[in-house]
Amino acid sequence: MAQLPSTLLDAVHERLLAGLSDVGGDPATIDEIAGRVISYLRNTAETTVNVEDDGTTFVITGDIPAMWLRDSAAQLTPLLRLVVGGVGSDEDRAELVSLLSGLLRRHWQYIEIDPYANAFNRGPDSSHWDQDETERQNPWAWERKFELDSLSYGPDLAWRVWTATGDTSWAGEQFLIAARTILATVATEQRHEERSEYFFRRSGVPAQDTLDREGRGSLTTPNGLVWAGFRPSDDACELGYNIPGNHFLALSLERLAVLLEEVADAPTEAAEARRLSEEIRGALAEHGLIDGPEGQKIWAYEIDGRGEHRFLDDANVPSLLALPYLGCVDAEDPVYLATREAVLSRRNPYYYAGLYLEGVGSPHTPKDHVWPIAKAVEGLTTSDRAEKLRLLQQMIATDGDTGMMHEGVHVDEPTTFTREWFSWSNSMFCELALDLAGVDRDLHARA
After folding, report:
1. Spatial distance between the Cα atoms of 430 and 426, rounded to a whole number of angstroms
2. Which pLDDT belongs to residue 446?
């Protein structure tokens, strides 16, 4: 497992104390927040991160010994904040960039192996979560649920590393192969019914863990959006076009185009990435909006291109709530603000409120469980520093006396929670604390 230099952790602690000094919290609270960030950063490195013999970085999700493409990028994103913020010595930050570059190279390897898998094994040992049927047997895949975020997090992280540091050590030959694979998969899944061979079936499981229509998923009509079988929660899409997933994919393709043009010298592929991004964005504007509770336009969560839509939000990112955090929309955009208001209300069937917590949960966890990830996103998408602090305090107060963040926490009984060890949730706490301390996510955060 990896270790973070003690000099870096000392610098993080000092930066946090300085950045949080004027936020209005009492010294004990500020010290608690800073201490937790250090603990979570150390825990992520020492318990989830492996530097392989080939220099790539393999990151398990926590209590499951597999690497999710989405989770792994999110887990290490706080490290990029430290690089962007100039925290620590040049040598310390170079070590962080090396870990991030190694993670990206691992992403490219996995995407080349199977662009439809969401989670992978450390080696081709055929380990898996559960038995399923797909059109392709793959000993590397822990699970083969097709989710748009699996193809989005890598290009987005690569763009942010490159713009922050100029580093291109992740951009070898395998990057171009993976990029071409992403572009081909996106184009195929824009017309899922006629072009795609993908299906996913499991027997004897809840409906959210398999796809209907013999594994093909609900029927969709092409409209420029990209089909997905599963949400970022790993639960099946009720309708085939996930709106927040398409938002993030469009942004990632736009950023991929820049990398293909400026780093990989691949203008043909860059043009295709831009074309796909523009097509998705046009389709979002034309088909992704629905009427809100007051008649104003808000974003749907899923649509099928056939006239059906669903409004909800799920704690897992990409989510509607997280769109500004990801960089997909402006936090002050009227459509986003109206969507946010609806998400943080009973209009969202997965919004829960109780004695100790209120916020967004997920059909992936039991009723009345709010996710700390969603609480962190709520803070990361507001400019109110006092509210950010309140949310951090609330997350600390509802950790079930474990000192760690969890997956879902019961709104009336914080000692009732799912997943004692969930690294992504710990990292999102770090994201919010660093944000409150003025350590930006990327060089464009204040633009």
Report:
1. 7
2. 43
Residue-range domain boundaries for the chain: 6-436
Q: Considering only CA atoms, give the Rg of the chain.
A: 21
Q: Are 407 and 418 in contact (CB under 8 A)?
A: yes
Kind and range of the H or E element at 418? strand 417-418
Please, which pLDDT band fits residue 349 given cuts at 50, 70 and 90? very high
Contact call for residues 101 and 171 (beta carbons, < 8 A): no
Reference 344, options 324, 365, 322; nearest CA is 322
Q: Residue 160 contacts by C-beta under 8 Å, 6 or more apart in sequence?
A: 80, 441, 442
pLDDT tens per residue, range 219-236 = 999 999 999 999 999 999
**Residue 445: per-residue pLDDT:** 55
- CATH topology for 6-436? Glycosyltransferase (1.50.10)
Please check whether residue 359 is in contact with residue 387, taking contact to mean a CB–CB distance below 8 angstroms.
no
Phi first, then psi, for residue 242 (nearest 5°) are -85, 120
- What is the C-alpha to C-alpha distance for residues 158 and 149, in angstroms, rounded to an integer? 14
